[in-house]
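Supplementary Methods. Inverse-folding protocol.

Structures were first reduced to a discrete structure-token string of length 322. This string, shown here, constituted the complete conditioning input.
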């Protein structure tokens, strides 16, 4: 970052870093005061006045774009020639950014080197912090997802189901709730073991997902209990059709290690058209009452909740045997 001037004040030599500031501008041969405007001290417009301020800090602005605001000191060589040492001063970061400078553009004794190292260290630390934050954010999202997921079937779990029902009730959106219990599942576990039971649960879960819409949510809320949430159902016949499809799929025999697993599904369904005054607990209780009615009527069927069912089941305990 230097220039040499001849006796007439013309630029005779340009340092390599100074060339980077104006790579397309021919500097050699031009008058120093035609290329640089002296901001301080004031009223320096000729070579004589410039030489009077030898060894004094100069505030300079190099013509052209982008603006290059520099600090400089003019040193006389005694034979009429001069050397102008240049620096960016506190605008070093803008200079490095605008002209793509590196530590090789500065003398090793220049304090700018220390600043560049500090900036590089800060940049590296910020990048490491950014990557760490991304990993932590990803881990948090994975943990939150795991907290809402049933690990065996991959379905949503009770926690996710509760949150969804609360959201739908709060938005006053009509929706359907199917509470599903697998009939005779205990027999599979008792006769063929838990491995067979787990396999049957996975098959049943996949069947429910396939027989519902992409906008519906299937959740496993207990050992062999599932709940399906169907938002924006405009016709009760839609719920009836979905229920029939699920029942038909679940009662299909499941092969496991040469053995046949035979189960069925009982469903209690609630069609919510207006959520005023309803709570999540009430919704699930109504679906449970309807499910109990399906169990009582012989299983492998769907029953829709009605207010009259509360009187019928006021002294009963929900399906003690499943």
């Amino acid at each position: 970052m230097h220039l040499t001037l001849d006796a007439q004040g013309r630029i005779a030599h340009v340092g390599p870093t100074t060339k980077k500031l104006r790579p397309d501008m021919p500097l050699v041969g031009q008058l120093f005061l035609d290329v640089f405007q002296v901001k301080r001290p004031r009223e320096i417009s000729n070579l004589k006045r410039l030489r009077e301020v030898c060894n004094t800090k100069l505030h300079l602005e190099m013509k052209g774009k982008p603006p290059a605001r520099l600090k400089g000191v003019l040193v006389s060589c005694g034979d009429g020639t001069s050397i102008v040492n240049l620096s960016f001063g506190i605008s070093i970061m803008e200079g490095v950014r605008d002209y793509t400078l590196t530590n090789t553009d500065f003398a090793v004794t220049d304090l700018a080197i220390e600043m560049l190292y500090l900036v590089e260290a800060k940049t590296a630390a910020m990048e490491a912090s950014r990557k760490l934050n991304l990993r932590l954010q990803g881990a948090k999202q994975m943990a939150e997802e795991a907290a809402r997921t049933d690990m065996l079937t991959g379905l949503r779990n009770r926690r996710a189901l509760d949150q969804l029902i609360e959201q739908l009730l709060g938005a006053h959106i009509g929706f359907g709730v199917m509470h599903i219990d697998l009939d005779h599942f205990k027999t599979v576990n008792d006769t063929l073991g838990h491995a067979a039971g787990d396999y049957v649960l996975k098959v049943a879960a996949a069947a429910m997902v396939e027989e519902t819409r992409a906008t519906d949510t299937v959740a496993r809320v207990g050992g062999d209990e599932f709940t399906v949430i169907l938002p924006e159902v405009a016709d009760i016949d839609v719920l009836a059709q979905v229920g029939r499809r699920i029942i038909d799929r679940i009662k299909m025999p499941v092969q496991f290690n040469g053995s046949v697993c035979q189960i069925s599904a009982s469903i209690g369904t609630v069609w919510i058209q207006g959520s005023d005054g309803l709570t999540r607990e009430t919704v699930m209780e109504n679906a449970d009452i309807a499910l109990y009615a399906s169990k009582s009527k012989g299983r492998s069927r769907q029953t829709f909740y009605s207010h009259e069912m509360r009187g019928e089941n006021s002294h009963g305990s929900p399906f003690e045997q499943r």
